Amino acid sequence: MTLTPTPDAAASVLAWHDVSVSIGRTAILDRLTLAVPAGGLLTLVGPSGCGKTTLLSIAAGLLKPGAGRVETRARRIALMFQDSRLLPWRRARDNAAFGLRCQGMPRRQRLDAAQRLLESLGLAPEDGDKFPHQLSGGMRQRVALARALAIEPDLLLLDEPFNALDSVLRRDLQDLVRQTVTARGVAAVFVTHDLTEAIRVCDRLVVMAGPPGRVAFSTGFAQPADARDDAAVLAGLQALWREPAVAEALGATPGRRRVTA
């Protein structure tokens, strides 16, 4: 697989410029500059503590940087967490419609829209009537994804959304996110500890080092994500491990596909 250089950030939908964040005397991010291309999926890979989730929090407006600035052209931003964070007293359909309710959409209209979205993401019609405790982990994450997509975001932020799932479910949902991003033309930032997962779904990949968090390596892939089979993903993995900056940042041997904290 051929790696490609970082493009000009002028067409980005989101950009962090010289962003620094500290908690007390501990530096979390150190003058980090990074851009998210419009209509593409950027993956952030790195060890725990390098500031990946902090970057998403800043992008979502949940945290202000201590220095630097953030620029975005996104009108609607949606965030999906590792935990589904569904309201346990509401049915799946109501959870998926929560953002639409906040936007003031009439009840019948928002529930119909949520039901259609749930079914488009692989849930059965009757699953919309179930409460979160009646759903499997994979089903709950599909509901969480539906909730995020229901508001038709320009920018989708995903913070290790499939980390707690088994490998089969992870693969299914990786494909689902990738297909959804492509079909809707939405920009996305996908945080993961898993380098294989990152290669499978991304348009561009950033390896972070730290703490404090900084960009160690950034690249794209000549082959579109939708066309990458297992052999292409393996080739990309091998190409990345040949990069000294990647091996140093992730602190693992080339034979390891998963970054551990």
TrEMBL record:
Domain ABC transporter: 14-235
Record-linked SUPFAM superfamilies: P-loop containing nucleoside triphosphate hydrolases
Domain of life: Bacteria
Name this protein carries in UniProt: NitT/TauT family transport system ATP-binding protein
GO MF: ATP binding; ATP hydrolysis activity
Keywords: ATP-binding, Nucleotide-binding, Transport
The keyword Heme belongs to this UniProt entry's keyword annotation: no
UniProt-listed SMART domains: AAA
Source species of the chain: Roseospira visakhapatnamensis
Coiled-coil regions, chain positions: none
Lineage: Bacteria, Pseudomonadati, Pseudomonadota, Alphaproteobacteria, Rhodospirillales
Protein's UniProt keywords contain Cytoplasm: no
Classification via PANTHER family: ALIPHATIC SULFONATES IMPORT ATP-BINDING PROTEIN SSUB, TAURINE IMPORT ATP-BINDING PROTEIN-RELATED
Family, as annotated: Belongs to the ABC transporter superfamily.
